[in-house]
Structure formats: structure tokens, C-alpha cells
Amino acid sequence: MGELATLEPGHYLVSGYAKVVVSKGYALITGGRFSEGSEVVVPEYRAVALEVPEGCTVSVARGEAKRLEKPSIPPEWGELAQSISRRREAVVLVFGDVDVGKTYFATYLVNKLLEAGARVAVVDSDIGQSDIGPPATVGMGFLGKPTALMCQIPLASAYFVGSTSPAGHLLPMVLGTKKMVDEARRSADAVVVDTTGMVRGGPARALKLYKVEAVDPQLVVGIQRGGELEHILRQVEALGYEVARLPPSHELRRRGRVDRRAIRASAFQQYFSSRGLRSAEVSLDEAKLVGSFLGTGVPASEEVVKAVAASLGGKVMYCETSADCLVAIAEVASVSRQKLQRLMEVYGVVKVLRRGFEKGLLVGLLGEGGGLLDIGILRELDFSGKKALVDTPLRDVSGVRAIKIGSVRLGKRFEEVERIPLGYV
Fold this sequence. Notes:
Structural class: alpha+beta
CATH topology of the largest domain: Rossmann fold
Helix content: 25-40%
Distance between the termini: 46 Å
Largest sheet: 7 strands, antiparallel
């Protein structure tokens, strides 16, 4: 980590990659109290608020420790955290645009709730910039000790949305958040819900309002610079919910699209590499496909397969029909609208997928009752052999009862290379 630089008493913003070492007294990191002997690692792309009191010895190795003239945590945050801590039992939803410090505030709040003696859980529904669990999931974790960063809270449970963007996935976003909050409520006094920065436009309004109604929080916190959330917060108040408005921190790291993509790739890589990937064979007799037209019908007759192949002008590897659709996997360079039209006149909705379409798709591996066992990367769907090949950290796939197809395709380095349109598969 390099040599340690001892800090003078005061307020700092420590940016990673860095290590904070408390060798005497204590330090406050994102509102959490870290006593003598504590070591906190700040990963790349992350930053923490550090307060060094008088008489304490705190050092930082590598990274940047920027000294601040005033605390990066606004006094309004502290006042609201005190008020919420007095309740102890509460579900708090945190709303805000991108780069206003939603996760920063949520982390600060859970530390203060823990300090007040509450049993605390966090639900991370920011599927694009996930801290608890991998991207494309709504993650939930319990706070057993102070935490400098939300990403350091252990994952207890997750819901697979299958996308890193809420657009086109509003229903699973609301359902997943609701399920995780309900599960957290069974063991925690206080539940804090972090959300995405999607706050503009009709889908954003719908997502936020239905999430509020589904979760039924005691408080909705809106962090805003200049009224950019009012179109949502006023409607939340009209529904009868309590709303608290907060300013953002004056010290925030802005992230562009490139940074966000890099963070997602790093999160996927960390999740998979830290647990070890293995290639697993999952029986399609035991585990059904979910979230896809595939696997929901019956294999087409030889006559139908020949007719589809003739219309497409290529070899058909697999074909099935259901009450509302015909799906074919074919070895074709492209499919013209005219060819599709002929098939649609006979079969209605027609889905033609190119051979190998499944390679790299993110999937959720579900157990009995639909709970997420783990995620994986789909390598092959073999309908003739009735099996799926999946790279996953899950050691025992015998309990997998469903493979939920996601809308994201990952590359060799776990980078996001494609988002699949809803209903494509």
C-alpha cells in the first residue's frame, strides 16, 4: 500500500485506491466510529468522508486525502439522522438525481442508526451502480458493524432484475425492491433503501411513485440541488407520505458514463473473480427458462420446422410453438421483414434468434420458490441435449429450478457489451 501519511486533526475526503489506519483514539468515517486498530480500504472510484478528532492518530496510504475547510456532510444530514434514529423502527427511501450523494447519505444514516442501537438493513436498488451484490440485482444486507462504504456491507439476499438500467424493467424493479424490503423487515428495526438516479420523465415518475406505494415507507428523503425532485416529491406527499428534503454534500465526485461503465465492469469482475467461476451444466428438464419466449412452448413438428427453414432460407436448429408465439433458432445471416411477415401470417408472433444468440447473456439461477441462488453467464442452450451451460460461482447447481434470462451481455472481461431489447429472447 505504500508509506503511511499521518493526518492532522480535521475533515478530509479520502479517494481510493487508499487505506485508512487508525492507530490511536478513533476516527469518524462516513458517520461511523472506527476505533484504534481499525483499517479501512477505499477502493478505486470510491471516496469516504473522514473526520480526525484532536488527540487521535490516523494515517492514509496511497490515494488522496483532501483536507476540507468544512465537513463534507451537511448539518441537515446530521439533524435528520438524529430524528430518524429516535424512531428506530422505520423504512426510509432515499431519492435523488445522479451524483447528489444518495449512497453517501444512506451509508451515513445506517451508521447513525446502528450507533443508536437499531438493527439495520440496507436495500440497494441502484441496479446500474450496485454496492450490495452484483449489478443487475436489487441487493440487501444487514449492518453488523460501522461501515465506511455501502459496498462493504455483506450481501444477504438479492433479486435478479437482469438489467443495469431501470428503463423497460420498471415492474421487476418495484417487485424486487418490495421483496427485499419485506425480507429485511423480518429481522431489522430500520431499513434504508438506496435508489437509482432515474428521476426525469414519465417512466421515472412511475418507478418512484409505485416503489413508494409498494414499499410503504415511513419517510422519503429527497436529496436535491435546486428543486429537481419536486415533480416527484409533491406527488409522494399527495399520497400521504412524509417527505424530508436535503441538500447534497458540497464535496462529491462526478461520474460520467465512461466511469459508470468501468465501475459496473469492475463490480462484475470482483463478484465473479472473488468467488471463482466454474462451468456448470444445468438440466433443462429440472430448470425451466424464465423471462424468455424460449422453453415455454412445445417442440415444433418436423413439418413446421421445414416450413420455417424454407421461409428463412437457412438451417433451423430448434423450433417451438406456444399459444401466443413461434420461436426459432436458426443459422441465418439476417432475417428480412418480408420473410418474417410470411411466417407471422401463419403463426402470429414470431421470434427468430440466430444460432449462438445466448452466449454471454447474464442469467439468474433461481431455486425453489423463485429465490435467487446466484447469477451466471450463459454459454450455451442445448435443446437437443436438454441442458444449459453456465459459468457461475454457484458450487452446487442441483437446486436450480429456473434460469431467468437477463437483458445484458457481458464480454470476456465482464464488461457490458450489449443491452438486449425487452422481449427480444
